[in-house]
Structures are given as structure tokens and as C-alpha cells.
């Protein structure tokens, strides 16, 4: 088994660990994690994002994907009184 090690990658939870005795070769690779550009939501995205936000109760846990609709939903949810972000969450308006 070949394992790539990048100290800039986030640690994940779950059954993701491999014992060192199972690894044949390590490749060290210190590189920034690629990031996708955040597209500006269209008027349609904003409308859909608003509908999504209306369905989410304060204190709910949600997962958003990538793209204009997800960004619009996050923008609509930012006015909520109670919300939290766990594990490597970032948002840029």
C-alpha cells in the first residue's frame, strides 16, 4: 500500500485509519488543498436558497454542497439567530 501524507489536509473521522505496518511506501506531499471558486448566486439561485432556508429550523444541522444554490442557501441562513459551524467550515460572502 502506498500512502500520500499531506499535513495540510484535514483529518477525517470514521474508519479511515491505517496502521503503519500495512503501508509499503509513504509519499510526503506538502501542498495546499485545492479550492473551487465560489460562484455568485443567480437570481434563481437566491430564490431557491430562500425556499431552502425557510425549511431549516433554528438549531438544525445541515450540509451544503458546491455551487450557486448552496451559496444562496448559506446567504439566506446567515440571518438565523442560532447556528453553528463544526469542522473546517468557511464562508465568504
Class from secondary-structure proportions: alpha+beta
Question: Runs with pLDDT <50, length 5+?
Answer: none
Helix content: 10-25%
Outline the biggest β-sheet: 2 strands, parallel
Q: What would you call the quaternary organization?
A: single chain
Cα Rg: 18 Å
* Spatial gap, N to C terminus: 42 Å
Mean pLDDT: 83
Strand order of the largest sheet: 1-2
Description:
The mean pLDDT is 83. The radius of gyration is 18 Å and the shape is elongated. With 93 residues, the chain is an alpha+beta fold. The protein has a two-stranded parallel ribbon.
Task: Spell out the key features of this protein.
about 25% helix, alpha+beta, 2 helices, about 90 residues, two-stranded parallel ribbon, 2 strands
SSE layout and pairings?
Blueprint: E1 2-5, E2 25-28, H1 43-55, H2 68-77
Parallel strand pairs: 1-2
Helix pairs in contact: 1-2
Summarize the structure.
With 93 residues, this protein is of the alpha+beta class. It has helices spanning 43-55, 68-77; strands at residues 2-5, 25-28.
